[in-house]
Amino acid sequence: MEITRAAADRLRSLRSDHLRDTGLRVFVTGQGCCSTRYGLAFDPSVAPDDWVTELRGIKLVVSAADMPVAGSVTIDFVDGHAGTGFLVSDPGSKGGCSCRDRRSR
């Protein structure tokens, strides 16, 4: 798992003082035909089997169930002409759009 400097800076600016020790939970929200969808949320709870690490001053928390999929993601923050927000991507993902594959047959 990686977090870019831009993402860490933005998360620190969003985190209020009372959330200072709260982790950022990274979770899988679903699987589309083209890729996995991820969610991010400040979460004060940590389960005994959660994976916890700190990168660039941000405490990251991933459930044991989501770790096989979410463990290799990169969290970035983008601010450009196409939009602004957090981008969670898996650079090692070999997924492709099966819809396109079916249409081309």
Helices and strands in order:
Elements: E1 2-3, H1 5-14, E2 23-31, E3 36-43, E4 51-55, E5 58-62, H2 67-70, E6 74-80, E7 83-89, H3 98-103
Parallel strand pairs: 1-6, 2-5
Antiparallel strand pairs: 2-3, 4-5, 6-7
What does this structure look like?
- With 105 residues, this protein is of the alpha/beta class.
- The chain contains three helices and seven strands.
- Strand 2 and strand 3 form a beta hairpin.
- The longest helix has 10 residues.
- The protein is globular and about 40 Å long.
- The C terminus is likely disordered.
Question: Can I get a quick summary?
Answer:
With 105 residues, this protein is α/β, with parallel strands linked by helices. The chain is 19% helix and 41% strand.
Question: Which CATH architecture would you pick?
Answer: Sandwich
CATH topology: Hypothetical Protein Aq_1857, Chain: A
Biggest sheet strand line-up = 3-2-5-4
Classified in CATH, the superfamily is HesB-like domain
How many distinct domains?
1
Average of the residue pLDDT scores: 85
Proportion of residues in β-strands: 35-45%
- Share of helix among residues? 10-25%
Specify the number of helices.
Answer: 3
What series of H and E elements makes up the topology? EHEEEEHEEH
Unreliable stretches (pLDDT < 50, length at least 5) are 100-105
Strand tally is: 7
N/C terminus separation: 36 Å
Helical/strand content category: alpha/beta
Main sheet specs? 4 strands, mixed
Radius of gyration, taken over Cα atoms and rounded to an integer in Å: 15 Å
**Global outline:** globular
- The CATH class turns out to be Mainly Beta
